[in-house]
Amino acid sequence: MAGDTGNQKPNPLEMRVIGLESSVNEILDLLRKAVTALVAPLVQGAPPLIPYVPPPTANTSIGMLSIPDFFPDVDAAIVVSIGKHEFKPQQLGKLIPSVTAKATTTMYALEDGTLRAMDMAPIKDLPDFSTFMCTLGVYFQILYCYAGTPGSIQAVTDVAISSQAYTNLLHEYSHYFSYPAILTYHITHHSCRIREMIRGDYSL
């Protein structure tokens, strides 16, 4: 009887299990290769670390720079108008070189209980939310500089906190409202807040 064991046929169930294990291993190998192929380009394409470069004013040989000097791509008169709070939100397109000034249209908004005519930049000036936020970021950078000119750390802190809170608010609105609605909201909000900013109130 012992000599007959070598002639027994393989168990079909065992053969299926072995075949299934082999297939699973092949699938796992394919998945590992696919994941490696996807991750490798991401690692290779990682952005390089940006080294710290001291600000131009750290070089005393070139003298002290004025605030417009820090923004060479923006017209100096526009930079100064931001410091004086004379800058209109319809001029945002002038803060980035790739956007050229275009004709504006007229809209009406309720301000202090009075219906006032306001010039509104067409959407084509700032074609998308990303471009709009980039220009708004430049505006806030210029505002930081002027807020710090009196030497008040508190003023810079107030502007930084309020501008960041406003930026976060716009990003939150972008999940619920269309970009044209957000741009219209900003133009109206900024126009209504100019008087408060002149008084030093940068709160929302």
TrEMBL record:
Record-given protein name: Uncharacterized protein
Species of origin: Pleurotus ostreatus (Oyster mushroom)
